[in-house]
Amino acid sequence: MLPETKENRLPPVRLYECLVPSPDRALLRRYTGYLALLLRRGLGQKGRHPKSFNLLYRAVSRSWGEKTLLGGLQKAFIARNVSLSLLLEPLDGFEWLSKNRYPLELSAASPIWLQIVSPLARLVAVLNNQQPPFYQPFADLAFIAAARYLLAAPELSALLQKNGITVDEARLQKGLPLLQKESLQLLSVTSWGAFRLKIGFFIGLGRVLSQTAPDNGWKKINFFAYVNAFLYGLWHTLTVNHKTRGLDKL
Q1: Can you tell me the mean pLDDT for 73-96?
Q2: 104: helix, coil or strand?
Q3: How far apart are CA 102 and CA 93, in angstroms?
Q4: DSSP characters over 158-202
Q5: What's the first-to-final CA gap in the chain, in angstroms?
Q6: Side-chain-facing half-sphere of 230: CA atoms under 13 Å
Q7: How far from 210 is each of 3, 88, 176, 180, CA to CA, in Å?
Q8: Residue 5: pLDDT above 60?
């Protein structure tokens, strides 16, 4: 899981649970825990025999008891009419990481990370009754959030370095504003309501985090930073309709 920070320079990870309704937050925590376990396997077991991941595919495809991680996820997905493919799809990206034998730079590998993040984006969309166009821009937003934690946590960069994945901080920092622009598309494809305000807030929070580069010191996240993020998101929420008017008729 992404680390908390004692300096209060990044939002607590639990804040992102607010993206889904309260009854579904336990499911989101369990699913992100599942992704974290796959990440450890993909990064910590490079060079394992290909059959190692074949066993994982088989495990996800069979039924398990409710008290197990996979069994609990399977039951929750079925109860909410969520496709079990969201358990299988992340395996492709993590298997690729495990088998990779060439130097890899994080920014250049963003399509791979998005392949891993995309199922998470789809889960959040389904739990909020959102439409398919929601997926890609939210995946960009999730990548931005993960990159912020990575830039502020040298131990994560060191872990990636051990697995042949370098982090060009300047390149990553430079590319995030472009993804920030893409994430603004969320407001034009998200249904009106409390969830749209939440998305606006998290887009605003990403903007707050991007205002100061990590090598110059991070701005501390305090109450006023959250207020600033909310006001920025609210402004875009109220103005985006004018920018996209008529697109629904195409």
Answers
A1: 87
A2: strand
A3: 15
A4: HHHHHTTEE--HHHHHHHHHHHHHHHTTHHHHSPSSHHHHHHHHH
A5: 41
A6: 8
A7: 18, 33, 8, 9
A8: no
d(CA 121, CA 141) in angstroms, rounded, equals 9
What's the maximum distance between 2 C-alpha atoms anywhere in the chain? 54
pLDDT in tens, 111-144: 677 778 889 999 999 999 888 788 888 888 888 8
Which amino acid is located at 113 in the chain? W
Q: How far apart (Å, rounded) are the C-alpha atoms in residues 184 and 126?
A: 19
Encode burial over 76-112: b for 16+ CB neighbours within 10 A, e otherwise: bbeeeebeeebbeebbebbbbbbebeeebebbebbeb
Which residues, other chains included, contact 222 with Cβ-Cβ below 8 Å and sequence gap of 6+? 8
Q: What is the pLDDT of residue 216?
A: 45
* pTM for the full predicted model: 0.83
Give the pLDDT confidence of 58-72 residue by residue, as tens digits: 888 888 988 899 999
Q: How many CB atoms lie within 10 A of CB 139?
A: 25
CB-side neighbour CA atoms (13 Å) of 85: 4
